[in-house]
């Protein structure tokens, strides 16, 4: 039986942190463009269809997160942990992936990485 998600819209860092601390992990369609989430631990969360465009996620722990269809264009993901993340059809164009750990992250042919980014060398799985 599908879960009903009565939560308030996730459109600020404060709401996200409060909901995550209370055990919430479903943040589908979160609106966090330009958010400062540097060094935050959000492992195992569902951020499918979320907007993180131009957000600062440097050093963030996004291990095992579902970022399918997420907009991460121009996001700062330097030194972020994206191990095992789902990046199916995610938009990472012009994102800063310097030092990001993408080992065993899943992507598909619709995932858009920055120009000159070598997904295979980064350990990304192509589905």
Order of strands across the widest beta sheet?
1-2
User: How many separate helices?
Assistant: 1
Termini Cα gap? 28 Å
Total DSSP E strands: 2
Query: What does the radius of gyration come to?
Result: 13 Å
Helix content: under 10%
Task: Say what oligomer this is.
Answer: single chain
Molecular shape: globular
> What would you call the structural class?
little secondary structure
- Look at the structure and give the mean pLDDT: 94
Stretches where pLDDT falls below 50 for ≥5 residues? 1-5
Order of helices and strands: HEE
The profile of the biggest β sheet is: 2 strands, parallel
% residues in beta strands: under 5%
Would you write up a description of this structure?
- With 127 residues, this protein is largely without helices or strands.
- The protein has 1 helix and 2 strands; from the N terminus they run αββ.
- The chain has one helix at 13-21, and strands at residues 106-107, 125-126.
- The protein starts with 12 loop residues before the first helix and ends with a strand.
Main attributes of the structure:
globular; two-stranded parallel sheet; single chain; disordered N terminus; 127 residues; little secondary structure; 1 helix; 2 strands
Write the layout of secondary structure elements.
Blueprint: H1 13-21, E1 106-107, E2 125-126
Parallel strand pairs: 1-2
Quick take:
This protein is low in regular secondary structure.
């Amino acid at each position: 039986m599908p879960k009903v998600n009565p939560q308030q819209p996730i459109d600020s860092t404060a709401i996200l942190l409060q909901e995550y601390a209370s055990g919430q992990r479903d943040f589908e369609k979160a609106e966090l463009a330009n958010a400062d989430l540097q060094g935050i631990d959000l492992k195992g969360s569902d951020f499918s269809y979320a907007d993180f465009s131009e957000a600062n996620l440097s050093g963030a722990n996004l291990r095992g997160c579902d970022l399918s269809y997420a907009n991460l264009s121009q996001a700062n993901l330097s030194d972020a942990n994206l191990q095992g993340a789902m990046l199916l059809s995610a938009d990472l164009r012009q994102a800063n992936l310097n030092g990001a750990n993408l080992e065993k992250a899943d992507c598909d042919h619709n995932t858009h990485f920055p120009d000159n980014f070598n997904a295979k060398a980064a350990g990304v799985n192509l589905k």
